[in-house]
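User: Hi! I'm working on a homework problem where we have to compare a predicted structure to a textbook description. Could you give me the structure for the chain below?
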Amino acid sequence: MDPDDYRKRTRFVIQLGRALHSCGASSHRIEKHLGNVSRMVGLQGHFLFTPTGFTCAFWQEDEVDQQIHIERVEPGEMNLGRLWMIDTLIESIHTGKTSLEEGMDQLPHLAAAAPLYSRWMQGLSWIITGGAFAALLSNHLYDVWISLALCAMTFLLHYLIQRRERMAALLKILAPFLSGVVAQIIASRGIEVNVPFVILSSILVFIPGLSLTVAMSEISARHLVSGSSRLVDAIMNLLLLLFGAIMGVSLASLLWPSTAPIIASGLLPNYKNIPAVLLLAFSLNIAFDIPMRKCIWGIIACAIAFFTAKFCGAIFGLIVGMFFGALAVGLYSNLFARIARAPSSVLSTQGIILLVPGSTTYMLLNEWVSGTQVIAGSQSSSQALMMFVSLVAGLLFANALLPPGKSL
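Assistant: Happy to help. Predicted structure tokens:
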């Protein structure tokens, strides 16, 4: 191979790896995908990805004589819409519709593409996510309304300080702190509200439930370095959120002590779960930057995951129900990937995020520290761990029963 051509192809694969990492794709999927793409463009290579860096090694004839690229990167934010567009480009190159040279020109533009939705549409998705989550787990109307208000406040805080580097590092402490202060003030006025629960709903977008599940999945796939580092990062984020919430409630309790509720909350209707799941699924599509014309597939994935888990959970128990929920959405996403030639992780991620017990982990940490349950009858630590395992097992069984045919 001509040296200039070889250099262009290796640069393309490296740029692809950087772009996929910025989209929040899991390390083992990126490594497998880059291996497939390398063979597609006539290269040989090994790849090692972690949340904060990656290494690419290429060779031509002698595997020991390698060209190595090492890069330090920041952990990527989940952007499934951009991931889908990048995969579409690679599929177009593979089928010959787009030349490799055209793909090399288009990839940097896709990787740096602006979000599809405006800042205020993203804010609306934050608010809907928190409110729909509150409606799923609480029967009290005030919990939902207060969660919506606190979500709006959290997004406004995020919007104001995200570009201030030193302040942005404190966001995961400041957001629960302010939510805790406001929720405690509301409770001190005699309004019936579950303070820890509305705090959780308001910071739901920061809860690393999906990161915990991805970490467990990477560890089960024997990608130990990436999985372990992602697990530690997720736990640290949970602790920061919990610290901020406890500090806010403790400070507000000194200034505005709680009183017995004198303004009772109304109850939500029994059919609340259906609109709540649909609204939550829709808001996730906006949060993940998925084009509106493709949102329906993600909404179906969320509905399959939630209602399968709920139905099977009523028969076999919560943990087995979550296994069947993950299995069902895994089969659905893999079937979609085969038919549409799209990445299966786009749909499976949306479905799994409704099942991930990240909020349960937060509740357990809150219970260990404060001694009070966020929701009566919440799960124990062993059950929370088994919930993560059941999700990973469900996805593993889905991939074994119906392989997706795509590496992403």
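For your comparison, note the following. Confidence is low (pLDDT under 50) at residues 374-378. Residues 139 and 269 are 8 Å apart (CA to CA). Good luck with the assignment!
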